[in-house]
Here is the input.
Amino acid sequence: MKRRQKRTLLIVLLVLAGAAIAAVVFLGMRKAFTYEEPVIENAGQAVHAAPTPVRTPQPGSQGLDKTINFLMIGIDNNSSSTPDARGNADGIMLATINPHTQQIVFTSFLRDTRVRVQDSYYDKLTNVYHTGDVALLRETLEKNFEVPIDYYAIFDYENVAEIVDAVGGVEMELSMEEIYYMDAKIKDICVLVGADYAENALNVDQAGKIKLNGIQAAAYVRIRPNEGGYDVGRTERGRNVIAAVLGKAFRLGSSDLLNFANVFYKKLETDIPDSVFLELGMNASAIRKYKQIEDRIPIDGSYESGNTGSGYYVIPDFEVNNKHLQESLFEGKH
Here is the structure.
C-alpha cells in the first residue's frame, strides 16, 4: 500500500469535485470566478436484474482521460482508548468524477452491509476498517461490489466540524426528532473538541431550516434515528452536508481559499498523489460544472435486513447492486 500522506482540507473538496479551489490553491491562481449553483439529483432506486456489464474505456473529455473513484472514510474514534486508535468506519462513501458523463456521483454504502472478507468470513462494512485497515476495506469493497477504487481519504467528526466552520456553516432542514437526537451527539463532540455545550445546543422548537455550525453539523451526520430510517437516514445526511459544504466553498474568494487550506494543513490522511491534484486543478473550470448525483448502496428493493443472531445486518443482492453501480458510475444512468 502506498505511504499515507497528510494533506489540507482542500483534499476533501478536490476529492469531491476537483473544483476551482484546486486552481486557486494548487496552481496559485488569484483571479475571481463566478459561481453556478450545482445541480443535485437523487438517483432513482430502480431494481435491475441483468448481469453486471464490463467497464469499457471511453475517450476523455474536458482534459481528463478516465473516471476516478475516491473512497471517503468517516471514522468514529470518540470512544477509542487513544487518539490514534482505529475507530469504526461510520461513513463510507465513494466519490466518483466521470469526465465522460460529466457527472460527480456520491455513493454511500450502508455501514451494516454484510460482505465477504478475504474469501474467509462475513462481517459488516463498518467493522472491516476497524479490525483490518484501509487496505482491507478497499479490497473488500472492490471484490464484493466489483468497482475499482483509485484513492482514499480518511477523516473524523472533529474534521467535519472544522470543515463546516471553514465555510461559515451550512443550512439544513431539520425535523424536531433530528434535533432531539442531535443533543447527545453535540455534547459528545463538545467534549471532544473542548467547546461549550451551551453555545452549541439546539432546541426542538427551532425545527425547520437552520444554519448549523461545525459541531452541530457533525452531530447531524452522526445521528441514526429519524423519519427516513436508521443508516439510510444517516447516509443521506452525510451527502447533504457534503453538497452544502461544496456549494459554499465555491463562493469563497481567493484569499479565503488560501486561508482555508493553511488552517487545515495536515488534517486528513490520504494516498492521493500530487499529480492527481494537479490534473484536477488544471481541469477545475470544467469539473465544477459537472452534475452532482447522490446515490446509495444497497438500492431500494435490493436487500434484506434483520438480526441474524450475531447482530443486525443488511444483506444485499450483489448482482442487482453491482449492475446499478456500473451503470451509475461509468455510464451516467440513474
Observations:
- The mean pLDDT is 76.
- The domain at 5-157+249-331 is CATH 3.30.420.590 (Nucleotidyltransferase; domain 5).
- Residues 60 and 100 are 6 Å apart (CA to CA).
